[in-house]
Amino acid sequence: MNSLDINQIKQYLPHRYPLLLVDRVLDWSLEDKTITAIKNVTVNEEFFNGHFPHVPVMPGVLMIEALAQTAALLSFLTEGRKPDENTVVYFVGIDNARFKRPVGPGDQLKMDVKITRAARGIWKYTAVASVDGQVAVEADLMCTMRSVADSSQNA
Asked: What burial class does residue 42 get, using C-beta atoms within 10 Å of its C-beta: 0-12 exposed, 13-18 middle, 19+ buried?
């Protein structure tokens, strides 16, 4: 079983609090091109102050972002490299996003991502996040990796 703790994750992702949304990688398979990671959702999350104070709900856009960060981890692991300070991963597309249940304080978001295609610098993934076995969000994601020098150009 392959796993990564938070310190290892920070070697692959440039995100930091409050936007680092992957707490642990439970497993990944280079053969199957899959990864499973978790985000522990706590009442201390900054976004709960305003979304919504009387019924705290994790914003859907942040659930998608957590899936995208998990996808980026899988891409780097698949390539067998860690990004340098000049590497940036951008969204290219989000398709078929469906939100199935709210996520709140105390939930553990389990994220399963699979690479479905990688060609010409574009990575495609299927991504599902669940809580206690219930799907919270699912989407097809597309990302690209660029160097900082290239990021000022149109993708």
From this structure: exposed
Q: Which residues are catalytic?
A: 51
**Position 40 in a domain:** yes
Q: What is the pLDDT of residues 57-100, one digit of tens each?
A: 999 999 999 999 999 999 999 999 999 988 989 999 999 999 99
> pTM above the 0.70 mark?
yes
Buried b (16+ CB within 10 A) or exposed e, 83-93: beeebebeeee
With a CB cutoff of 8 Å and minimum separation 6, the contacts of 11 are: 82
- Domain assignment of residue 125, yes or no: yes
Query: In total, how many domains does the chain have?
Result: 1
All residues at 6 or more sequence positions from 153 whose CB lies less than 8 Å from its CB, including other chains: none
Closest by CA to 27, choosing from 89, 83, 77, is: 77
Per DSSP, what are the bridge partners of residue 38? 24, 110
Q: Considering the domain boundaries, does residue 68 fall inside one? A: yes
Instruction: Spell out, as residue ranges, where the chain has pLDDT lower than 70.
Output: 150-155
Q: Is 80 left (phi over 0), alpha (psi -120 to 50) or beta?
A: left
